[in-house]
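REQUEST
  id: r-88c1
  op: predict_structure
  target: Myelin-oligodendrocyte glycoprotein-like
  payload:
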Amino acid sequence: MLTSLKLTDTGRYKCSFITDNVEKSCYVNLTVGESDVIGSDEPVKANVGEDVILPCHLEPPFNVSTLTVEWKRNKTYVHVYRSMKHDPNQQNSHFINRTYLFCDEIGKGNISLLLRNVSKEDEGLYICYVPKLHSQVRKGNITLKVDAAKHDTKQFNGSINNKSTKNTDGADDTTVITAVITAVCTAVFPAVIIAFIAWYIWKCWQN
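RESPONSE
  id: r-88c1
  status: 200
  body:
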């Protein structure tokens, strides 16, 4: 079995075997077709602070481990894979230590990019490019959309909940105070009436 095909593998292959002291042979012609770089038709969405994978692969699968793979955004180098390793020389400082290729998958044609800790500034159109690929389609486009609204909404809801809690606590305090005053009045008022009646009777008796 021949794995990780390359365009240079195209050609005529000979299989020979010997039986009864006679050599026999058969021939197989192999043609390796071109692979296209495939991005994503649908935008990739992420929230601020998350890690995200920008999908890109070759179809049919093709080993590009010995080729150069470039990721760009607005003509800025996001990640460069060259000489079978990451090449940081051209990488924009905004993306340093934040981008990774899946090295074990490159031989299978998977050239997706992992982008860590995304920010709103990362939003935009990304291009995955294999410049030396023998194909009519050497670029794939991926659009990244970064949503910061969810985080803000949580903070907003938190503020509302805090205010609601404070209002509820205030209402409970008012209810308690009202109940105490009512109880005091209920207990004291009859005692005052009884004391007044007793004083009035005593006053009349003195006269």
